[in-house]
């Protein structure tokens, strides 16, 4: 393998060479002829079938090794870390640049990400780092005031954790940093899960504020990082629709939608979830805001419980559907579309005429047009008409990379039942 250095001599990441020695951080990765077009267009992923393996065999690299990516003619395309066993075998962290993945780079990326959030949000509660969109591929960081929850979603970036943590502590001086290792991508790669406090102290629950409403997020054991900041903007729009209304919040988790609906003036909110622990969180968050008298909980499978509510003649002015991703892979699109159509049909059956259906999807493979199509098919089956009155998307702390459509995943559609 050609190990000609493309980084500054003597500069390496503190954690890139740890317990075993692998390819030098100055190693080169050559692409096949014609395989550079996507990267030149701004994409950050290098696929294994794009590599000139005769020139730079993937077997010579280990996860986390730093490389200078070059086209077939030798021109620099950027710096990347390796994931040689994956289809995406390298991820660019410095497009068009030759530089190490060290504390200096992390500090620069964090400063840019922080400036973007502080320009929009007046309180320190947001997603601070959103992977590729912040040119920190494989990293997610949610900020809860003085506490940070970090996810490393592949082995390659995890190898550089010490440099990132050093940059985080220097820049934000948090009281505590928690690593969460239980994402789906980590499980699929066979990586270690669990939660680990790596700086200071992090309580089991931390407080956050969203749209003026307070919440306690179970950061150690809750879903993902303990909270979902992505629907923040759509939840804010509830204020225009829920005053004096009855609301059913389906797949409620700890009440992000439902408790905010109550805070915005809904008179009767029912949060439905299959998790008893999540519903305990709903009750706690309702009490935190003095809303316990108008927020109730209901435990059960969403489809079965909604069907039972319908059989009992229950109806609501507003029904909110924020399910988990029904479509994890493109091959699941047909089955997942059916699931979205069915849950929306059940929602419409519980909705009074003139009421509002809020339908969300976090399935990247389901387009916005497909979600609206599922809602329309549900309306036909439910014997009613729908009109879309508003649409929502992920907030500015989940920026979309124009060259990477996978970074755009969240949809929310507000529709009135006629």
Task: Note the beta-strand portion.
Answer: 25-35%
The CATH topology assignment of the largest domain is: Rossmann fold
- Measure the end-to-end span: 67 Å
The radius of gyration is 23 Å
CATH architecture annotation name of the largest domain: 3-Layer(aba) Sandwich
Q: In order across it, which strands form the biggest sheet?
A: 15-14-13-16-17-19-18
Largest sheet: 7 strands, mixed
Structural class: alpha/beta
Tally of helical segments: 11
Helix content: 25-40%
Uncertain stretches of 5 or more adjacent residues: 1-25
Average pLDDT value? Answer: 93
The tally of beta strands, per DSSP, is 19
What's the helix-strand series? Answer: EHEEEEHEEEHHEHEEEHEHEHEHEHEHEE
Shape: globular
**Domain module tally:** 3
CATH class of the largest domain: Alpha Beta
Key words describing this protein structure:
418 residues; alpha/beta; Archaeosine Trna-guanine Transglycosylase, Chain: A, domain 4; Transcription Regulator spoIIAA; Rossmann fold; 3 domains; 7-stranded mixed beta sheet; 5-stranded mixed beta sheet; globular; disordered N terminus
């Amino acid at each position: 393998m050609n190990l000609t250095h493309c980084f500054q001599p003597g500069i390496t990441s503190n954690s890139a060479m740890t317990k075993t020695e692998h390819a030098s951080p100055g190693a080169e990765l050559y692409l096949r002829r014609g395989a550079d077009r996507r990267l030149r267009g701004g994409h950050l992923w290098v696929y294994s079938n794009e590599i000139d393996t005769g020139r730079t065999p993937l077997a010579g690299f280990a996860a986390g090794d730093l490389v200078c990516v070059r086209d077939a003619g030798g021109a620099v395309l950027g710096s990347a870390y390796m994931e040689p066993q994956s289809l995406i075998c390298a991820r660019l962290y410095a497009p068009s640049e030759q530089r190490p993945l060290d504390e200096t780079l992390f500090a620069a990326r964090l400063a840019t990400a922080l400036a973007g959030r502080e320009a929009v949000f007046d309180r320190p509660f947001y997603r601070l780092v959103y992977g590729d969109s912040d040119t920190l591929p494989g990293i997610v960081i949610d900020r809860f005031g003085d506490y940070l929850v970090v996810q490393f979603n592949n082995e390659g970036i995890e190898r550089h954790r010490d440099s990132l943590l050093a940059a985080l502590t220097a820049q934000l001086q948090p009281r505590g940093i928690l690593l969460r290792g239980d994402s789906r991508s980590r499980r699929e790669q066979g990586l270690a899960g669990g939660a680990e406090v790596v700086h200071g102290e992090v309580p089991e629950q931390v407080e956050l504020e969203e749209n003026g409403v307070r919440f306690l997020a179970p950061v150690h054991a809750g879903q993902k990082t303990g909270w979902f900041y992505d629907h923040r903007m759509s939840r804010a729009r509830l204020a225009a629709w829920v005053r004096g209304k009855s609301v059913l919040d389906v797949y409620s988790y700890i009440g992000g939608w439902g408790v905010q609906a109550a805070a915005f003036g809904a008179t009767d909110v029912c949060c439905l979830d299959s998790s008893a622990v999540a519903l305990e969180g709903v009750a706690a968050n309702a009490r935190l805001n003095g809303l316990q008298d108008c927020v109730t909980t209901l435990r059960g499978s969403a489809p079965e419980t909604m069907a039972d509510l319908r059989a009992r003649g229950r109806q609501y002015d507003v029904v909110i559907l924020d399910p988990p991703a029904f479509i994890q892979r493109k091959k699941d699109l047909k089955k997942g579309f059916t699931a979205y159509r069915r849950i929306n049909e059940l929602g419409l059956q519980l909705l009074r005429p003139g009421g509002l259906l809020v339908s969300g999807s976090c399935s990247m493979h389901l387009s916005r047009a497909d979600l609206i199509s599922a809602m329309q098919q549900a309306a036909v089956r439910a014997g009613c008409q729908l009109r879309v009155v508003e649409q929502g998307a992920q907030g500015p702390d989940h920026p979309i990379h124009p060259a990477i459509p996978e970074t755009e995943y969240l949809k929310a559609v507000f529709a009135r039942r006629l």
